[in-house]
């Protein structure tokens, strides 16, 4: 564990990560767009990290799901341990040369990996890459991401796209299990022995999926 990026030691023990969006009361009542805030928890509901999105009011208002952002993720001591960077890019399957991508750093300033959208006319597809831009995993979503308030699963697969090793799940309001009393927005399930840097990249992928497919949903309300 001495070779792990500082702050990621805890991810070494996790095979399930819960990301819960904090709903701003003013945004819920008035519909105003504010910077997103998240709690990142383990399977017991204990907070491991918290995340705050940084961008301009102009970007949030006009660019919404395609807006650029910097997501700063800090541990419970307030130390920034992961930074997620998203540039402004077109969000349309009609423009395969302008597909989405994320850079994930851990510690900030050091590349941990990338999330790269792959062009497909029917399915949401992404590739998880390591710090050397080598392909590591695939993420494949359903053809319809609106599940009528049912959970929506994006499967995490090996590079051959045949073997499923985990998933990123969107949990709608009303989701209940024996751990949480509040609604959890997303759950990430991956092998416990997956490289912690790739686990950090999976957290970044979760934020990207949220903005691309669920930004205008009713989540959290």
From TrEMBL:
Its cofactor is Ca(2+). GO terms for cellular component: plasma membrane. Keywords: Calcium, Lipoprotein, Palmitate. InterPro entries: Scramblase (IPR005552). The keyword Coiled coil does not apply. The keyword Calcium applies. One of its GO terms (molecular function) is phospholipid scramblase activity. It holds the Pfam family Scramblase. Signal peptide: none annotated. May mediate accelerated ATP-independent bidirectional transbilayer migration of phospholipids upon binding calcium ions that results in a loss of phospholipid asymmetry in the plasma membrane. Belongs to the phospholipid scramblase family. This is Phospholipid scramblase. It comes from Thryothorus ludovicianus. The gene is Plscr5.
């Amino acid at each position: 564990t001495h070779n792990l990026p500082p702050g990621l030691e805890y991810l070494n023990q996790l095979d399930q990560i819960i990301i819960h969006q904090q709903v701003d009361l003013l945004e819920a009542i008035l519909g105003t767009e504010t910077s997103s805030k998240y709690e990142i928890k383990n399977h017991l509901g204990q907070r491991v990290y918290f995340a705050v999105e940084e961008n301009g009011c102009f970007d949030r208002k006009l660019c919404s799901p395609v807006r650029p952002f910097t997501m700063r993720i800090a541990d419970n001591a307030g130390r920034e341990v992961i930074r997620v960077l998203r540039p402004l890019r077109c969000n349309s399957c009609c423009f395969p040369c302008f597909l989405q991508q994320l850079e994930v750093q851990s510690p900030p300033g050091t590349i941990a990996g990338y999330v790269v959208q792959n062009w497909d006319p029917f399915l949401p597809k992404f590739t998880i890459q390591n710090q050397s831009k080598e392909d590591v995993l695939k993420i494949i979503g359903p053809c319809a991401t609106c599940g009528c308030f049912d959970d929506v699963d994006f499967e995490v697969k090996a590079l051959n796209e045949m073997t499923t090793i985990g998933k990123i799940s969107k949990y709608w309001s009303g989701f209940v299990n024996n751990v949480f009393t509040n609604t959890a927005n997303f759950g990430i399930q991956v092998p416990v022995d997956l490289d912690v840097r790739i686990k950090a990249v999976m957290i970044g992928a979760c934020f990207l999926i949220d903005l691309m497919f669920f930004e205008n949903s009713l989540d959290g309300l």
